[in-house]
Amino acid sequence: MSTTEHQKRKTLHRRAAARTVALYAVFACLWIYFSDTVLMWFMTSPDQLTKAQTIKGWLFVLATAALLYMYLSHCLQVLRTREEALEDQAEKSRQDVQNRFTQLNTLFDSMNAVVYVADLETYQLLYVNRFAEEFFGPGWQELKCYQYLQQGIDHPCHFCTNPQLISNGEDGSSVTWEFQNTKNNHWYECFDKAIRWPDGRMVRLEVALDITERKELEKIKNDLLSSVSHEMRTPLTAISGFAELLKNEQEIPEQHRRHLEIIFKEAEKLNELVNNFLDVRRLKTDRARVGYEYLPVLSLLEKAREGSRDCSEHHKIEITCRPDTLVYGNRQELTQVVTQLLNNACRYSPRGGEISLTAKNSDHQTTIYVTDQGIGIPQHELDAIFKPFHKLDSGDRRTTGGIGLGLSLAREIVILHGGQILVASIPGQGSRFTILLPLPGDNTPDVQDDATVGRQS
Question: Are residues 151 and 183 in the same domain?
């Protein structure tokens, strides 16, 4: 019952009590007045009048007692009727909840997957299905999720997804990830979602599918790809290394030097193609969350600027970011995302121009913008540019190069971090890529409120 309804009900009760008291007072006063008047009309003797008034008083007491009994009996009967109706309704609600719980429990017990519910703040287990009990044993009550599901861990797991499940105090989007359990060494693909428990608190529902067999098959394929990629990288490294060595020789004619420069650049592009292809495939098949920590965004942006190979002296790169701006994720992967977007911005700004890297924290979220003043992207291409091997179709864009895997790789990394990447562009005016990454609000370290920092190169 809400506070407003409770106050209204108290007011109605007070009014009913006041009306009852007022009616009783009026009835009593009228009885006393008229009865005394009638007795005085018929009796003149003081003794007779006193006896008559005594009898009248007893009659008044008996009459009011009878009326009070009938009134209280009526009220109690109404109260009993309402209580019985409320009890029936509560019993029906309990039965409905029990039936739903039984249905869900039957459904979850029939799944060949680990299903459990844990409190988001205390990590206390609230539900475990039969499949989980068969793997991890009974006696999960009063245990925390990491105590029951993991081996030798007495604190919350460093890869826990709890911080990414809540957005502005409410349940956010689901998180899909993979990990190798420390108790049975099986690999699981986990689907985590924050839900509201019947008692009102936020809890984590996790469904974990055993993918150990699939991971073993993937390992065989990965080993094969690693061998193939190694065999490809060895000659590519030799080609690019000797080409770079030869083009720095003083005796090489200028025309041959240009040919060697072309060989070196194409070998580097082919090497980048192999690396990006393997990274995209790894992220699609291996969604393990490792190395996640709080990172200063400013250092990531500066690292990306230093590692950009497609930017030249014609590009003016400006970084706008407060030193206390943080992001939660893997340092190497997030640096790779920003570097790729910066390379694209420089590549699609062939005449140079200003490129800005901007970052800020707000509402448990980190936002990073990469803005350029290049040739832009047609509206019908905005959705397709994140597909593997997709390249813009027009001839002048083809001259900018690119292998068509960078944006696909960047999107996979951002999705793995529980975020999203957006793009807005106007042909001929430039493009703006936006990276949105969830930031665990409750565990964010204290930071100082410094002024905005702008750096240029």
Answer: yes
Pairing verdict, β 315-320 and 353-361 = parallel
On whether both 410 and 302 belong to a single domain, the answer is: yes
CB under 8 A, 24+ apart: contacts of 101-106:
105/129
Q: DSSP state, 127? A: E
Residues near 97 by beta carbon (within 8 Å), at least 6 away in sequence: 198
The reply to whether 9 and 119 lie within a common domain is no
Please tell me the predicted confidence (pLDDT) of residue 456. 45
Q: Mind giving me the DSSP string for 207-250?
A: EEEE-HHHHHHHHHHHHHHHHHHHHHHHHHHHHHHHHHHHHT-T
Q: Identify which of 400, 409, 279, 263 has the alpha carbon closest to the alpha carbon of residue 345.
A: 400
CATH code of 177's domain: 3.30.450.20
Cα dihedral 95, 101, 102, 104 sign: positive
Range of the domain at 348: 291-456
Q: Distance between CA 334 and CA 298 in Å, rounded?
A: 12
> Last residue of a domain, which of 172, 194, 210?
210
DSSP letter at 124?
B
**pLDDT tens profile 28-45:** 787 777 777 777 777 767
Using N-to-C axis directions, what is the helix angle for 331-347 and 297-307, rounded to 10°?
Answer: 50
What backbone phi and psi angles, to 5 degrees, belong to 139? 75, 35
> Range with the lowest mean pLDDT among 96-110, 302-316, 337-351?
96-110
Per-residue pLDDT band at 448 (split at 50, 70, 90): very low
| Cα–Cα distance measured from residue 238 to residue 255, given in angstroms and rounded to the nearest whole number | 22
Buried/exposed 393-414: b ≥16 CB within 10 Å, e otherwise: eeeebeebebeebbbbbbbbbb
Confidence of residue 400 (pLDDT cuts 50, 70, 90): low
* Bridge partners, 193 (sequence order): 205
My answer on whether 86 and 144 are in the same domain is: no
Q: How many domains does the chain have?
A: 4
Tell me how far apart the alpha carbons of residues 57 and 39 are, in angstroms, rounded to a whole number: 12
Per-residue CA distances from 301 to 308, 318, 363, 395, 444 (Å): 11, 10, 21, 31, 20
Show the tokens assigned to 23.
Answer: 């009616």
Q: Facing residues of 195 across strands?
A: 203
